[in-house]
From TrEMBL:
This is DUF4374 domain-containing protein. It comes from the Bacteria. Keywords: Signal. Residues 1-17 form the signal peptide.
Amino acid sequence: MNMKRLALLAISIGVLASCSSDDDSSTDTATNPNDSRWITVAAAKMGDDPGDGNGGTLIYSVSSEDAKNPEVSIEAFDNGFIAPSNRTARLQSSEDGNTIFNISYAGDTGGNYTKYTVGGGQTFTQTGSEISIAPYVGTAPRWIKLFDGDKTGSAVYVNTENEFDEEGNYTRTEATIGVVTLDLENSLINNFQEHSVPLSAEEEAAGYYISRIDMPTLNAAGDKLYIGARLSKLDPATTESDSDYEILGSKTIVLDYPSLLNPTVITSTVGHGNTNGYRSINAFEYNGSVYQANQSDPEGSHILKIDADNQYDDSYDFNLDDALGVQGAYVLAWRPAANGKAVLAYRHDGSAEGVAGAQGFFALVDLNAKTATKIDAIPYDPDFYLFQYQGFVVDGTEIYLTQAPVGENGNIYVVDTETGEVIKGAELVNVTGSHFIGTF
């Protein structure tokens, strides 16, 4: 039975599986062996421009066995399930891969939380009730799943307002953050708090303020929530945006958890720049501490460490420029396994400029040894764009990722973080101007 006939048969029985091989013994993608894990591939469709991802998000799941099989072909753009979202969906998965969590981003449904049971192929069955977090954090929320056994999600926002004295002179910019926690199991709001979060008087007088926050992360004790922050600056004399200024030490907002009270700001003396990340989780708990990437650091991205005392450990100096032998390393996304070894997506000053932006690469990172090595077994292309990358699957010491240039076919790759072995897996079938944003 050839691949075309097998695909037609799959459609006729309602499976819509685009996963096949050239012989009759191929495994149906809707069958997931007991010792396997669902691997859900996320595909971002082009809107107006190649690589913008604004045409919506499609998801398609296969077993981990099929994800590792280069004879398998995954056609997520043609056969995938449309994840509700006006633009690129903000997806999370349960630790076992059996559930996908989604909060729609922007549009009429922006802020709507839904979850789905993974059934293989394009089968994602909605479970539980929907809830909107838009009244708390707006229709384009920045949210993440906390690592507490798939129980809780958290979304955040920040609003800013310039303040002036009686003579009309600028004094500071008020930054008001909002934080909501969401019961993922029962679709309920757990808590919501708003806070004014000031910087030092000296920093504020110079025009610095917190302009964006994202990526809430629980500490090991589960009693503090860390929120990454981006700082911006205006010219106090004109209140116009200032683009040429000293980059301050990386900062994180710390809240009591689960009360979300008592905000404080901690500052690194090792790393400078932002800690809010972008589309992917930016900080992870490992071995009692939280390890956090920073971005837009003048000395290249660092992996920073926050210890159990809820302060930066400035004796931990992990500079990715030095480790990778590049200039201007910029962490786009990353994910560690339980052994403290991680896969990291990055670009740097030497990246080629592709159709959608700077070329991306993957590296294998060791948090204990503070080493990072480019993964050469994965092919690279100037159009391999990772700025919007969202998800990695961790299964034991293995990490699954997607590789495909914008508008071109690629593959799933599986990295054994313990041995460094790389497996080339299932083919990812692309369409014009679109790209893949990870595994879940």
